[in-house]
Amino acid sequence: MEPEHLKKGKMGEDMACRYLAGLGWPVLARNVRFRRGELDVISKDCDEMVVVEVRYRSVGILVPPEASVGPKKLRKLVLAGSAYMDRIGWSGFWRIDLIAITDRDGRISLEHYRDITGGDVSF
């Protein structure tokens, strides 16, 4: 049996992928693992690759999803994102977005934060 937090995480990623598809962004990969970390979703916004970090939280947890990505996690995302771009031979622009999903007793809200590193993917 799958633990509840993993079920919710997968549900959040599925929701994020549907949201991205609604924007017209193709989902190119999911759950890409590296030594440096895991990338939840890889998508493409026009001519820019997008690493999408998905955070799902229920109300009552101390930290909202958008506040749960600190400097250490950002560094891991940048390193793993760089490794992914190297792996696929991407030399164009890329960025990291955050999709924060909050469950308030079954009412789901989704917030999309674009370019959470402010364009700096050179850690």
Describe this entry's structure for a reader.
By secondary structure, the protein is α+β, with helices and mostly antiparallel strands. It has a single domain (4-113), classed as Trna Endonuclease, Chain: A, domain 1, CATH 3.40.1350.10. Helices cover 31% and strands 37% of the residues. It contains two helices and five strands. The protein has helices at residues 4-23, 71-88, and strands spanning 27-34, 37-45, 48-58, 94-104, 107-113. The longest helix has 20 residues, at 4-23. The mean pLDDT is 89.
CATH topology name:
Trna Endonuclease, Chain: A, domain 1
**N-to-C SSE series?**
HEEEHEE
**Spatial shape:** globular
Task: Provide the domain count.
Answer: 1
Q: Helicity, in percent?
A: 25-40%
Strands side by side in the biggest sheet: 1-2-3-4-5
Q: What's the short story on this structure?
A:
Helix content is 31%, strand content 37%. With 123 residues, it is an alpha+beta fold. It has a single domain, classed as Trna Endonuclease, Chain: A, domain 1, CATH 3.40.1350.10.
Which terms summarize this structure?
123 residues; alpha+beta; Trna Endonuclease, Chain: A, domain 1; 5-stranded mixed β-sheet; 5 strands
